[in-house]
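ARCHIVE CARD
Drawer: 12
Card no.: 0347
Subject: one protein chain, sequence and derived structure
Cross-reference: see card 0346
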Amino acid sequence: MIAHGYKPGSCITLLAATFCPMSASEIIGEIERLSPTEQVKVIEFAYRLDAERMLSGKELAALAQRMIDATDPAEKLRIREELTRGFYGGKGDA
């Protein structure tokens, strides 16, 4: 829910917390200013998030088409595993 009177790029205060929504490019800029050690943590988080999320129907269909079009058996297998993970998500015994 967006607070009444909210303008993009401005901060809002709810209860005792202040939130300053940021665009992806602003977040990337902040990541670039982190130390290399902190950047590694962000990269690990991004990989984990990508591995755990379920793909949309459109994303699954695009992957399925890539698998059909692939000529290398190893690539087909890799895409098949990605499809399975994307359908079930990376959590549990999928």
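Annotation on reverse: Residues 53 and 89 are 5 Å apart (CA to CA). The longest strand covers residues 12-14.
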